What we know:
Two copies of one chain form a homodimer. In chain A, 45% of the residues lie in helices and 13% in strands. By secondary structure, chain A is an alpha/beta fold. Chain A has a single domain (12-195), classed as Rossmann fold (3-Layer(aba) Sandwich), CATH 3.40.50.300. Chain A has a five-stranded parallel beta sheet with strand order 2-3-1-4-5, with helices on both faces. Chain A is globular and about 55 Å long. Chains A and B meet through helix 1, helix 2, strand 2, helix 3 and helix 4 of A and helix 1, helix 2, strand 2, helix 3 and helix 4 of B.
Amino acid sequence: MKENVFNQEYEITKRDRCIQKNHNALVVWFTGLSSSGKSTLANELDKYLYSKGIHTYVLDGDNMRKGLNSDLLFSVEDRKENLRRIGHVASLFVDAGIVCLAAFIAPFSEDRNHLKEIIGYENFVEIFVDTPLKVCEERDVKGLYKKARKGEIKDFTGVNAPYEKPEKPDLIIDTSKESLNEAVLKIIGYINEKLQLEQ
Amino acid sequence: MKENVFNQEYEITKRDRCIQKNHNALVVWFTGLSSSGKSTLANELDKYLYSKGIHTYVLDGDNMRKGLNSDLLFSVEDRKENLRRIGHVASLFVDAGIVCLAAFIAPFSEDRNHLKEIIGYENFVEIFVDTPLKVCEERDVKGLYKKARKGEIKDFTGVNAPYEKPEKPDLIIDTSKESLNEAVLKIIGYINEKLQLEQ
């Protein structure tokens, strides 16, 4: 019955929603290892953008895995589906005129490319949080590296599952070398022009 | 590995996002038969709210079935999953401070109750678009009743599948009796107070 899904002509467009908010919509995606600083960066960027009157929303493992994707586990297939769904949700937020900050490991190039296709390359800013594994493991914010090393978690990115580095990310941030403040200013410097509404 | 999903403390809250937009977030759900006027009402309400500076977004079969839910068909199970996912997406929009207008048949009480649980009863406004089947079938905007009567579509709500009327909807609208303008004013009258931010 797929051919029976019809378009309703809605009159308020994405552009109208952007005009209302006075900025463009974007997805800023933080990819990198566990404990690399993705969520911390997303939170700090969120605070900054909010203070400037930008309408944002943050997607991360917390609000996705516990709600929409609570039926998914951590098999290769489920991780792919997890990201596919996140991509479509981010795309809806962009359509709603929102700057969507997404903090997910997304270790495979193929999945990240699929995300860009779903969201649109022109709407997608890829930030590679390239904090060295050693530093991430020392931080081990959630104690997951420890569990992975003990073999209690299998397929843990960086330990017993690969992380494919982005080939051409828009920005690279190493939180072991750059302060949070420096990193946020770098991101702002990059996205500022993209946020300007075309006249 | 579900127990390994952690909460990141994000500092910008739902309330902050509502303060930025200067109104509360809500889901306004239009339930009713095909061709009952759900999408038309959602579009008209969207235009009105937009003109008043309210930040809205519309979810309907078009943007859901073609993206996030493109893997789902029309079996009982898939329809249930379709609505579950829409519920979680609407819930994310509410968390982002947005007034989310949703236009979906949602024929079963059980599914609608599940939606209310996901989204939160306090955030959910249920509008029953109670246009008589006869009128819907005469309109047959998408030619689907014709196909269903010919047996080309099975399980078509109102023809060969049931529609369970909401027991206690917040509002009932019969578009064969009320003009679009009257209906929108009725909805506004109902949601106006809910949109006011508590001080």
